[in-house]
Amino acid sequence: MSFGIGKDFTSSRDGKKSSVELLIDDCHNHGAITVTSATSYTTEDAAWQKHIGGVVGILYGSDKGVTVSNSSNEATIHSTAKGTGETRIAGIVAHTRYGNIEVSSCTNNGEVKSTGEATNARPAGIISVTNAATKLDIKQCYNKGLISSSATVGTFFSGGIVAYLLGPATVSECYNQGEVKVTAAGGETKIGGIAGQAEKVTIEKSYNQNKVSFSASKQPRMGGIVGNIVQNVTIDNCHNDTNGVVECTVAGATTCVGGLVGRLAGQSTVIRNSSNSCAV
């Protein structure tokens, strides 16, 4: 299920790339979006459950390229949906799929939150979840809104820019000025000022300027820039500034907390020319 402009513009759900060239420019959402459901949606593809974006729900790329630029969300986006499927929710785009995509000069100023009994919440300021079949560039995008999750079951990913960042992708000249906050009693949590989890990506010239906080009882991986790195990540010239306090209140769990990265699990990762200036 998708919410926002541009749903299914390729008219294809079978994973094939499109040759369509699309520009979504100067689009702004000022209306609050609230999604509530008693149970999860049942579809042929379970990954299509609960995609909620201020501008685009699911965005398909194409060989010729798809661009979302100069756009913003100014309102609260809130999901209280229940069920077993992921809740992908973001200020600009909920989910990117396939082809070549650029998201540039976009801003989220509204609160993005997932509450209730939803499992696997992925709230973020710009993009919730990216897809390995997409070549993605995120440039000069900013989050200034509160990003929060208080869902009670499942695993959680949350980030000021992207919640679950799976490449090939580049994040360049982006910053987060909104608090990223998770209060959950469910499973493992990855939370970061820029990205909750990152794999096969480059993050450069980006910074976090607000608190990253977690208060629960299960396995947090949290950092000022990235909560959890899987593998093949380059972080270059990124900074967690003095306001980017990384704060964790947790009992009885394995805890990984860092000024830049909470947990670095994989190989081929480079961190250079980067700094942390806040309390952890």
* Low-pLDDT sequence parts: 1-17, 40-48
Rg from C-alpha positions? 17 Å
Roughly how much helix do the residues carry, as a percent range? under 10%
Contiguous helical run count: 0
Measured by DSSP, the beta-strand proportion falls in over 45%
From the spread of the alpha carbons, the general shape counts as globular
Describe what you observe in this structure.
- With 280 residues, the protein is mainly beta.
- The chain contains no helices and 36 strands.
- Strands 2, 6, 7, 11, 12, 16, 17, 21, 25, 29, 30, 34 and 35 form a 13-stranded parallel sheet that branches. The protein has an 8-stranded parallel sheet with strand order 3-8-13-18-22-26-31-36, with no helix packed on it.
- It is globular and about 45 Å long.
- Mean pLDDT is 84; it is low at 1-17 and 40-48.
Give a quick rundown of the structure.
The chain has 280 residues and is an all-beta fold. The chain has no helices and 36 strands.
Structure characteristics:
0% helix, disordered N terminus, 13-stranded parallel beta sheet, mainly beta, 280 residues, 8-stranded parallel beta sheet, globular, 49% strand
